[in-house]
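**User:** My hope is that you can spare some time for a protein that puzzles me. I have put the entry right below:
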Amino acid sequence: MSTMNIGTEKFSIRMEPSGVEVRCGSEQTVLDAAIRSGMSVPYGCRHGNCSSCKAKVVDGDYELMNRVSEFALMEFERQEGYILMCSTMPRSDMIMEVEEDEEPGLQLFPVRDFSGEVVSNERVTPDSADVVSGSGPFGRMQLRSLDNDIVFVAGGSGLAPIKALLESAFAQGFTRQAWLFYGARTTKDLYLTEHWFDWETRSS
C-alpha cells in the first residue's frame, strides 16, 4: 500500500496571483499539496533537480530539503526567497508567487493515493516484477486530439504508457493513422509483440 506522511500540523498557503489557498501538512511538500488541490503548476522531476517548480515565498517560514541541487536553485535565488516546491515543506502559513501552468483543453485529474493487488502475473520479460504500489496520476501525458495521425515512440518498459494511450484512442473510435516505433536492448526484452502484430492486422 502506498502511504504518505503529511504530518499532523497543517498550514494555509496562498498562491498569488490567483489567490488560491491550499492546505499543506508539515511533512508534505508544497508541490504535493498544490497538485492534490487541483492546481495546474509546472513541475518535472519532483526531486529538486530540474527547477521546473521554482516559486518565490513572499511571506512565511519553510524548510528547504537538502536534496535540492545547487544548479537547480542557485544560492542568490535562495537568498531572495525562491524555492523548489517539490522540496519545500511549510513551517507556518505562507504566501507564494506561483506561475500556474494552464493549457487550453487539457483535462486535469486529481492525484490520489492507491494500492493494488496483483491477481495474476505473467512474466513477459525475464526481469519483470509482481509488486505494485503508487500514487497518481502525475504529469501531462495524454492525447490532446484524435483528429491527427500519431507517431508513438517507446523503449523497453516505457511501452506501458504508450499502450495505455493507444488503447484509449481506439476505444474512442480513433480512425486516423498510427505508427508505433518500439525498441529494446535485446529481442527477449521486447514484450507483447504478438499483441501489436494482431492490432496491425485488424487495423489494416
Observations:
- The first helix runs from residue 30 to 36.
- Helices lie at 30-36, 75-79, 159-171, 193-203.
